[in-house]
Amino acid sequence: MKFITKITSALILSVGLANAASYSVDNSHTNVGFSVKHMMITNVKGEFKTYDAQIDFDEATKSFKTFSANVNTGSVDTGIEKRDDHLISDDFFASEKFPKMTFVMKSYQADGNEGKMKGDLTIRGITKPVVLEVEDIASIKDFQGNKRVGFSLKGKINRTDYDLKWNKALELGGVAVSEEVKIIVDVEAVQK
């Protein structure tokens, strides 16, 4: 009986993968961003300029079969060169020693044009599970007849979980940089 169950599971999985198509990220229409509270009063936003991803997406079920990404930590850009230099230093990303952060999806639960993506996020060699909300999934054919998919990923992490611990206490209470970091990623990808 266990043998039949395993074969049935394998067939269901292979049928699901057969309907999925591979997509390449369109870097000119994708943004890998973040937001963090500064001095307890405002949000500072930034992005990473260099990244790649492996995406297998099933248009019929609007679900992801594979999603993994590599982000170059040295490509961080907040619009302030001095701050970016600090972010790639050992106080934060230690980009010379840890040039990449990665995300690997472990499961996906579809809910129409939305869903939950669970996976492992690795920063500074430390891997922790995270949950990303997937929103606004849409697919179209572009002007050249290529299939495209677009979606947003949103989540939160505690940066100290990844040894990003630099901070300074404020004179009247609070800290210079919040521990919570919001992840905000907008993806457009083209079917291979």
From TrEMBL:
Keyword terms of this UniProt record: Signal
Residues forming coiled coils: none
All copies of domain Lipid/polyisoprenoid-binding YceI-like, residue ranges: 22-190
Pfam family, one: YceI
SMART domains tied to this protein: YceI
The protein, known as: Polyisoprenoid-binding protein
SUPFAM superfamilies: YceI-like
Keyword hit for Signal: yes
Signal sequence, renumbered to the chain: 1-20
